[in-house]
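INTERNAL AUDIT FORM
Audit reference: QA-55
Scope: verify that the stored structure record matches its stored sequence.
Auditor: D.O.
Record contents follow.
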Amino acid sequence: MRQFNPKAKGPLDGLVVLDFSRLVAGNMLSLQLADFGAEVIKIEDPKEGDPLRAWRVKGVSAFFKVYCRNKKGITLSLRTEEGRKLAFELAKHADVLIENGRPGTLERLGLGPEPLMAANDKLIMVRVTGWGQSGPYRDKPGFGSLVEGMSGFAAMNGYADRPPVLPPLALADMVSGLYGMSGVLMALRHREVKGGKGQVIDLPLFDPIVSILGPEAAIYKLTGEIKPRTGSRSATTTPRNVFRTKDDRWIAISASMQVMVDRLFKAIGRADMLEDPRFKTNADRVKHADECEQPIIDFIRARSLEENLAFFEQAEITAAPVYEQDQLIADPHVQARGIIAELPDDQMGAIPMHAVIPRLEATPGDYYRPAPKMGEHNAEIYGRLGLGAADLDGLKQRGVI
């Protein structure tokens, strides 16, 4: 089990980040910064806290523990005048501020970019919303499921004879958080290397998930056609699918290059298919995917998962098992690289979560501290503003923190 190392110094050591966001996107962004040593101060309403805390499994807030590791936590109510003044003071000493209110919310509270950046012209503000700070949908509620639907992603996902499928995880939020992290680093380079000032980063959930669809808009313009959903198949290359084994497990095959197709057909004893006009080129195989896959289906179904994996590895064919979580955690490669890290936890004893990524050789990230309890670092952070124990007791009694 890995241990937390609060004395470690990551490459972002010294960077102060105020995270006013809730749920996944903002937390995903600040998690990347925290993993590499930034002091991320997670700011929560004293009554409600981040809704991630309420996403419980057997009484454990696993989502909060994962997305808020390496962060410090304070409570602060922006509903109060005193709370807004404290937020303003904190922002004067911060490098980055992350928020995910609806457009105009911070402005109504007197905490918009204009007054904050007048007080701290080095401040980088990341504004996470569903649809962006401009456009006709700017004021609409924007949960990830909505943008996953409107982006075109859900329409591509699933099978042609069944409804579109939303992803079973917060995909739009996580993609947005990753884009946001890169945006912060670019803004920091502009500020620190180019001598620039702070700036606002407009970070919707909608735009990033549209971007990961790749050339779909260009393909539509070229063809004028809406592509049907293809399940686990690819609309651009065949064979590529998941196949059931004799022991009712699953294996993924991807032969996206002609050399791999040649190797696959020869290995399963169907070299004759290479001369069949239906399978000569990738475009031919996509048109005749059912016929192309049938010999592969039969071959794999006659063997267990382990037999198939051994066969395809020997034949140097690109194949991999389809894992459930228990199989992923037990995999020797996952264990050898520490892809799932086990960290101390006050409820679970040890909690597994994804490792710090990417892996920087000279300046790696680390595990500095577990996710904070509500208001755990109030005394430390507010002490920087000159507030003592008596001040904090008064603020707490008045519902400010």
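Auditor finding: record pair retrieved intact. The chain has 18 helices and eleven strands.
Action required: none
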